Amino acid sequence: MPGTAGAGAGAVEVDFEAATPQRVEALRRGGVQLPGVSERTADPRTHRDFVELRVMAVGFGLTEGGYLLYCEGLPLPVLVPESQVDLGVTSAEPLGAFIYPDRDSALADLEARGTEAGHPRYAWYRGAGGTLVVPTFFSPASTPRIARTMLEVREHLVQTTQRELKVLLLTLTGTKVLQGVFSRVLRVGTEPEPRPLPRQEGVGGRAPASQPPAPQVAPSAPEPVPTPATPAPVPSAPAPSPGLVQALSGGNPTPRVGPAPRLPQDVAARPKVPRVLPPDRPISSSHSQNAQLQADIQYLQDLGATNIRVNQQQITVRNGQRVGANRPDLQFDYNGRRYHVEYDTPMSGRGPGHQSRITSNDPDAETILLIVP
């Protein structure tokens, strides 16, 4: 379980992890004797990276054959294949408190140790590129809250017959927050990199209600988190970007970066704020990106965001001043803060450069990077 080092304002929480038997033996042969840690202290279910403590919502893709987990701190949903889910297992025991570095090594040790007659066993490992602690199979025994929500998601979609990767997203309290089509996911197993799917349509919706701090709950491209309820999007139009919804709830999926030296053309930009141009301006030749932009603008207007600008030079909050010659795709004021949104394709790779320039021009601004093919 998380421990505490130090006291007062200097206290630091740490997680204890038990080494696997293979690691312990390798260190022993090298002359290193690890101190003993009780299974209770090192229980992966109390680790801050345990998937049940990081998951915010669960979705189900009909044609992809798996579940989508939206987890705190991850910019993309994690795909759990149905082959790694058994919602009928209500009694099972972990192999131990140790956490394997990957799924393959966890499965190999499970096979080597065998399974007790009539009593399934599972092991813990680092999944989704090492960012989460997950079991070798998801079930009511290993991840009860996630399993319960998986069942609810399937029940909601039992009548759905659409052929796309259609996803209904529920919070862990059963609140519907999202319905749409997704294009990028992360596998919970051994694949750390995002992979594209054949197509994408707009996604989004209302954010889930706030959850207790522990376990943490609350999610793109996709991940709503607690925020005031807003009107549901028009069914025929793209829904607001989940990454935008999450960012305006205080959980921006785009990690912040530090300012770098400003470009000469930005330093030379006249401080006078230019007039606002019509927000229906295009940001690219991509029809899907322009459509998603307009859906996001409608969402922002419903939220009460102000000073909305599209493809115009960067300014600061409340029209303070012009600070750059660059043109963020979308910028606006919300709750006393300036936000900038950049829409990129999965392969463009230009988002981080845009974010660095925006931050250098205005370190107090928030940048949201969205992927829309």
Number of helices: 8
Q: How many strand segments? A: 16
> Structural class from helices and strands?
alpha+beta
Largest sheet: 7 strands, mixed
From the N-terminal CA to the C-terminal CA, the straight-line distance is 41 Å
Strands ordered across the widest β-sheet: 10-9-3-4-5-11-12
Low-confidence blocks of residues = 160-165, 182-187, 190-236
Tertiary shape:
elongated
Strand content: 15-25%
- Helical content class: 10-25%
Overall description:
There is one protein chain. This protein has 373 residues and is of the alpha+beta class. Helices cover 20% and strands 23% of the residues. It has two domains: 51-247, no CATH class; 264-371, no CATH class. A seven-stranded mixed β-sheet has the order 10-9-3-4-5-11-12. It has a four-stranded mixed β-sheet with strand order 13-14-15-16, sandwiched between helices. Strands 6-7-8 form a three-stranded mixed β-sheet. A hairpin with a 4-residue loop joins strand 7 and strand 8.
Furnish the topology, listing elements before pairings.
Elements lengths: L1 E4 L6 E4 L5 H9 L21 H4 E7 L4 E6 L6 E4 L11 E8 L2 H11 L7 E7 L4 E4 L8 H13 L9 E6 L4 E6 L2 E4 L7 E2 L45 H6 L16 H4 L19 H17 L2 E5 L19 E5 L2 E8 L6 H11 L4 E6 L2
Parallel strand pairs: 5-11, 6-7, 15-16
Antiparallel strand pairs: 1-2, 3-4, 3-9, 4-5, 7-8, 9-10, 11-12, 13-14, 14-15
